[in-house]
Amino acid sequence: MTSAAVPEYPWLLPGSLSVEQAPAGRRARRTTRDWIVDTLCFLGSVGWVLLVTADAQRAAPEFAVALPERWMIPADAALGLVTSVLLWWRRRWPVALAVATLPLTFFSMAASIALVIIYFTVVVHRPWPVAMLLTGAGLVTNLVFARLRPDPTLSYWETVVLGVIISAAVLAWGMFVRARRQLVVSLRERAERAEAEQQLRVTQARQLERNRIAREMHDVLAHRISLLSLHAGALEFRPDASPEEVGRAAGVIRSSAHAALRDLREVIGVLRAENSLGGRPERPQPTLDELPALVEESRAVGVRVGLDDRLVEAGRVPEAVGRGVYRIVQEGLTNARKHAPGTAVTVTLAGGPGKGLSVEVRNPWPVGGTARGRIPGTGTGLVGIGERVSLAGGRLEHGRDDTGDFRLAAWLPWPAS
């Protein structure tokens, strides 16, 4: 599809390639406006030929000095008509026609309008050096024309000056039209580029939002599914459990499954929405206040979790920072359940306004081989947490430390005000 900012035949633009350099097999087709303009130019030129010829035929005897030989009048009219016909090809070969008809500028009066139109076409559609060369050539022929076809009411130099004024006016008009067309093309291209960039920004914003929601749901679903796996594993390895224990585990499995399905349904609805461009994810929106509930949820499935809260003015923790801490602890507890089942987990929070907030999740390295029924992991949880911390301007560390424990630690900025 041809861009609206660039005509179908770009070599017709000011300063563009010549028709000889146009793509093979393509010819310049006139638009409706071009047909109207070319028709008016042709009719105007023919009308001028008829007017000049009739005026020469009936000229008074006192103006005989300004007239050529009588046989030259029909010859000049014929040349004028031929030049008028050539106007139909002026868009395709403006320079070639201007050079071919340049000798007529020495003497022809009937072809003068057609010659001016061809010269104007060169100025509008070709680079200015070409236009200036033809202008210089026209000024030279103007000196000869004023001698061969003198005006009985003007002196020689007055006739020359008049010809220079006409050439300068046509040149200025053509340069103005050329500049205006280039400006219109530039504005159209700029508008299309701005529209394309805006669409790209919208697409990128939508994609970033969806990626952020996907990271949120990875954290949520990994947490809930790990709870489901722990309870299902307990039922599998405790066939002698009492009916009360079985019922309690089944209730936790059912509630966790329902919660996971609800979160999954909500995020799929958001991802399907084309206008989901809000600044924050739609669901869920945990805060630091919900961290104790997260810890209790893990304790309810048998995980030994210790929470050491050393925060100063915890109520002033920014919402974004609190959400980041919640996700970091959630990922740490999920990893502990997956990779180190049965170990004790310690969660430590420290910091205050202006000092930043430090969060650490620590658990002993599992002893022995991989436990049977171990929950599989994708390995993307820590990657997502790293991206979250990096976007918040913080730091993240994870891995086995000198004591042999696995340590997940992060520092997030906490402004003083």
What would you say this structure looks like, in words?
The protein is α+β, with helices and mostly antiparallel strands and 417 residues long. Among the domains are: 10-153, no CATH class; 302-417, 2-Layer Sandwich (Heat Shock Protein 90), CATH 3.30.565.10. It contains 10 helices and 5 strands. It has helices at residues 32-57, 72-86, 94-100, 112-125, 128-148, 156-237, 243-272, 291-300, 319-339, 381-391, and strands at 305-311, 345-352, 356-364, 395-400, 405-412. The protein has a 5-stranded mixed sheet with strand order 1-2-3-5-4, with helices on one face. Helix 6 crosses helix 9. The protein starts with 31 loop residues before the first helix and ends in a 5-residue tail after the last strand.
Distance between the terminal alpha carbons, to the nearest Å?
55 Å
Could you name the ranges where pLDDT drops below 50 across 5 or more consecutive residues? 1-26, 60-67, 274-283, 369-373
User: pLDDT average, as an integer?
Assistant: 77
Strand content: 5-15%
Number of helices: 10
Q: Helices and strands, in N-to-C order?
A: HHHHHHHHEHEEHEE
Approximate shape? rod-shaped
Strand tally: 5
**Helical percentage:** 55-70%
**SS-based structural class?**
alpha+beta
Summarize the main sheet. Answer: 5 strands, mixed
